[in-house]
Write a structure and sequence with these properties.
The protein is of the alpha/beta class and about 350 residues long. It contains 10 helices and 7 strands. Strands 1-2-3-7-6 form a 5-stranded parallel beta sheet, sandwiched between helices. Strands 4-5 form a two-stranded antiparallel sheet.
Length: about 350
Amino acid sequence: MTDATSITPSHRALNASDAACTPVNGDKDRYVGMLRTMLRSRFTDERLNRLYKQGHITGGVYSSIGQEAIGAATTAAGQPQDLYAPLIRNMAVHVGRGETVLDVFRQWLGRGGSPTRGRDGNIHYGTFSHGVYAMISHLGAMLPVVVGGVMARRRLGVDAVGFAYIGDGGSSTGDFHEAINFAAVFSVPVIFIIENNKYAYSTPIAGQFRCERLIDRAPGYGLEGFSADGNDALALYRLVHPLAADIRAKPRPIMIECDTMRMRGHGEHDDFTYVPPKLLERYRARDPIAVASNHLKAEGVLTAAEIESLTQACQAEVDLAYRTAMNEPPPNPDTLLDGVYANA
């Protein structure tokens, strides 16, 4: 535990591009992997949107289109022993940590072979063997969970780091405050990632906060705070990777605010008319997949033809996965009580 008198809060509005940069060619597989994660996430979300409108999905669909860079960069920056708490717009976290696209479709379609065996809401799933918690709620409830999980692993001698995600609206909840304050007091190495996509459902930032940036809150908790471009996966990785290594060695929480924009409504039921078209145009020009592709071409990592081949392969993977899941059965009613009562 850190002595409160020794805390010297540090707050930096640091752009990801200002971080120490490893030459891209020195880590080609990792950077190509991030692009693959974003493509798989994007195509999966697009297909889920269509399946929802066709009536194949019970419940809502909440798209992460436009925010894929954050999940791709942060999963690339982690290690196998780390813990992640994704929310409703973190499809890239699931696939970036090794969830198969097939299992994603099984979950959303309520198939018997899904991660929850067709027994829970479509968004309440995870793969703990990959260090990914099943989501309880997108309103801050997962932040204390990942803090406790990291504490437990550290006490067992595992040098785990946590990645906890929250939206701008969710950062107004009590769980957000309690998790961050607790992590700060007990020096728990968790990266709290605020995905600032400008709207808490239909409430804009100006209607939620008086601070200029959400990261301005960090010094109040004794945390280092960083501002980053949430649509630039490569630059964000170059920021997060050394920070994760640093807090792994010198445990403490940090906060990163990622500037991004969701390009769909709060859910597919939301017509999204409250967002100014010019705002969407500005972020559409900064599409995270296009940004990453341009970086990889400019730095000689991939050619345009190689990117096109990767894109087609990811699309084919997603198409095969959804068709496979569509042809699988729902849970057998005879298994309804499985997992409910202990065996005598």
